[in-house]
Amino acid sequence: MASVSSLGVGSGLELSSILDSLQTAEKASLKPISTQQTANTAKLSAYGTLKSALTTFQTANSTLNNANLFGSSKATSTSTAFSATTTSSAAAGKYTVSVTQLAAAQTLTSGVKSDATTALATSDSTITIQQGGGKKPITVPVTAANSSLNGIRDAINKADSGVNASVIKVADGSYRLSLTSKDSGTDNAMTLSVTGDSDLQSFIAYDGTASGNMTQSVAAQNARLTVNNVAIENSSNTISDALDGVTLTLSDLTTGNQSLSVTKDTTSASSALSAWVDAYNTLQDSFSSLTKFTAADKNSDTQDKNNGALIGDSTLRTIQTQLKTMLTNSQSSSTFKSLSQIGITTDPQTGKLNLDKEKLSTTLAKDPDGIKAMIIGDGKTTGVTTKIADNLTGWLSSKGLVQTATDSVSKTLNNLTQQYNAASDRVDALIARYKTQFTQLDLLVSKLNNTSSYLTNQFETSSSSNK
User: In angstroms, rounded to a whole number, what is the distance separating the alpha carbons of residues 221 and 33?
Assistant: First the structure.
């Protein structure tokens, strides 16, 4: 078949340019479909942007939707001998603390052996470790072959006996077995007994006195302190039940009474609210960008190319409208029903929130529970962040508004692709048929031209002969 560029050579007709014009005219029928594809592709991308923006806001909303933020407190002391941490149940107040004794874990040390690898027993034995009167004794089997200092150490540690065993080299040719209770306090003091080998019995048995081979190098003892001059004794240096919501950690003895102050901490709530406002405003910026509209030039029949892909989109408008209605909590049990009462107002032009940090700080210090009641509500159906959290979860779910809209656009794009491919195939087939017909026309006209030339020559020759 002749190429497009050779069409019309034989006939002298402008068949090539005619075919190009026909092809251009037929291809124009694809433009409406292509335009729809471009618009829906932009819309699909825009839904992805919307989902990302909502997810980012969801993170900030989840952070604020925490009741502990509004009941947090902090503790400070006048001494480095103890520190304190608090929970939301801690009551504000000032306390005096005096630490007179730290809790200690008992350590037992054996006599000296010349090495740590020689067996101490000639028969298999069992070491029984008893900690405190109410605890179940732990039995540790030790074979004769594995009854060296190292063997005993490993057997005790493997048995998870509540005791840490180690071998200490005190000098060349001098080794001791050391046993330390994992937990401090007198209730965790230990006694040791051995059944089996008598040599091992005499080496490691300990009945709570210093009469045997094992000696007590560190005595078990409880922590002793006073809080507001009330005596307290505890087996641990971490004390969580002396003051409600306050955990004391002792590290040294104090010089007389020291002060511990517990105060309400509004910093965390203030920071979370500020971050939430920023996240909400960022979401509004995304809404504005996705729905941006600029009127088309009067000389153009197309939209401005900078317009948002979701102009007039019902999904975005539904989310934006519903979100705005959730900024109040008329069901709040406190006097606060709207964010404006605590220093957060809405700009009527942009829909963004403005934060009066000074007013928020003052209100938080005065009535954190009231703000909590408005923001968190009952944590189920009421509360600004609670309602927003529920709706965000719904909007972003696999069957939510955003995914449903995304799936709809994806389906439309698939249909448009099928339409475009079908129309493009039709155009290609039509142009191919035109090309075949034009080629045949070119050959036919070329033959006719040749015949015409031949006959003309014959007539001219005949006429010349007759003359």
Answer: 85
Nearest to 259 by CA among 72, 82, 74: 82
CB 336 within 8 A of CB 374: yes
Distance between CA atoms of residues 428 and 422, nearest Å:
10
Residues forming beta bridges with residue 140, ordered by sequence position: 127
pLDDT in tens, 439-463: 777 677 777 777 777 777 777 777 7
Cβ-based neighbours of 449, under 8 Å, separated by 6 or more? 10, 11, 12
Q: Give me the DSSP letters along 199-246.
A: HHHHHH-B-SSSSSS-EEEE--B-EEEEETTEEEEESSSEEEEEETTE
Least confident interval from 148-152, 275-279, 326-330, 421-425: 421-425
Q: What is the pLDDT of residues 161-183, one digit of tens each?
A: 889 999 999 999 999 999 999 99
Q: Which range of residues forms the domain containing residue 382? A: 28-67+268-404
pTM of the model: 0.61
- Give yes or no: residues 192 and 145 share one domain: yes
Sign of the C-alpha dihedral, residues 16, 17, 21, 24? Answer: positive
In a domain, 400, yes or no: yes
How many residues are given for the chain? 467
Pair of tokens at residue 152: 């005993």
